[in-house]
């Protein structure tokens, strides 16, 4: 189960939780990761101490050329334009994220960690180095849904924004759990060095004031998921594939 799926499971109503569990068990991962070009470029940019925006400009130029191709498929064009938008949003909010002041490095791929019988895949975009051997981790969130700017009503916009913030707070807790599972090999985990930078909100989200309660909620949810997992059956649409 992915960290994103688990974070969303924790804030949804039962019918939404059922869909999360079903999709986590039966849906195949996409061959091409959404926003892949943007994420690779943004990881490299943030881990370069120079923070040279020329590198991002080159990526955007290549994406624009791809989108403008006369024989390009609509899906490929849409993906290129989404990547350009993600890079632009990051640059617009970079000062708010405060990432320029951080010592960031690209992590190797972590193994999934066992949380109360559930294997959870947590893949940070950055490691954050602090003083006195402290270590943190960060995630860039570029996914559009739920999009606060894609609605007219202020209440809907507020609700979607809070949905993203709540997910981010749980993901920060999961980042801490990931680092603690490394048994000190990478340094002393520091939750205050863990964050989610949400390009749609233009906010850097760190540990919640009720962070300890969220850690307990994650463990409780995973115990529940471990019991439910064997009972999850594929929906008709999955069986037809």
Outline of the structure:
The chain has about 240 residues and is of the alpha/beta class. The chain has a domain at about 5-30 and about 100-235.
Question: Overview of this structure, please?
Answer:
The chain is an alpha/beta fold and 241 residues long. The protein has a domain at 3-31 and 102-236. Helices cover 50% and strands 12% of the residues. It is built from 8 helices and 8 strands. The protein has helices at 3-9, 14-26, 36-47, 53-68, 74-97, 154-180, 211-228, 236-239; strands spanning 103-105, 113-115, 118-120, 126-129, 134-141, 188-189, 195-198, 203-205. β2 (113-115) and β3 (118-120) form a beta hairpin. The longest helix has 27 residues, at 154-180. The radius of gyration is 19 Å and the shape is globular. The protein starts with a helix and ends with a helix.
**What count of helical segments does DSSP give?**
8
Q: Considering DSSP H and I runs of 4 or more, what fraction of the residues is helical? A: 40-55%
Reported for the largest beta sheet, the result is: 6 strands, mixed
Question: Helix/strand-derived class?
Answer: alpha/beta
The count of β-strands is 8
End-to-end distance: 21 Å
Radius of gyration: 19 Å
- Ranges with pLDDT <50 over ≥5 residues? none
Provide the residue-averaged pLDDT.
93
């Amino acid at each position: 189960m992915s960290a994103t799926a688990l974070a969303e499971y924790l804030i949804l109503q039962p019918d939404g939780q059922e869909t999360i569990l079903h999709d986590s068990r039966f849906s195949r991962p996409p061959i091409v990761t959404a926003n892949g070009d943007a994420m690779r470029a943004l990881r490299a940019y943030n881990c370069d101490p120079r923070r040279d925006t020329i590198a991002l400009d080159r990526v955007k130029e290549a994406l624009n050329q791809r989108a403008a191709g006369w024989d390009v498929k609509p899906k490929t064009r849409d993906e290129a334009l989404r990547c350009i938008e993600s890079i632009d949003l990051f640059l617009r909010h970079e000062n708010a994220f405060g990432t320029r002041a951080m010592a960031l490095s690209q992590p190797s791929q972590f193994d999934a960690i066992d949380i109360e019988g559930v294997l959870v895949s947590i893949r940070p975009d950055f490691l954050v180095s602090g003083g006195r051997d402290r270590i943190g981790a960060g995630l860039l969130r570029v996914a559009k849904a739920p999009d606060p700017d894609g609605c007219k009503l202020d209440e809907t916009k507020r609700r979607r924004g809070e949905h993203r913030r709540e997910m981010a707070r749980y993901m920060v807790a999961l980042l801490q759990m990931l680092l603690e599972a490394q048994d000190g090999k990478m340094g002393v985990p520091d939750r205050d060095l863990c964050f989610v930078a949400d390009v749609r909100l233009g906010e850097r989200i760190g540990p919640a004031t009720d962070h300890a309660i969220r850690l307990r909620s994650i463990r409780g949810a995973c115990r529940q998921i471990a019991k439910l997992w064997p009972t999850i059956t594929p929906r008709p649409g999955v069986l037809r594939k």
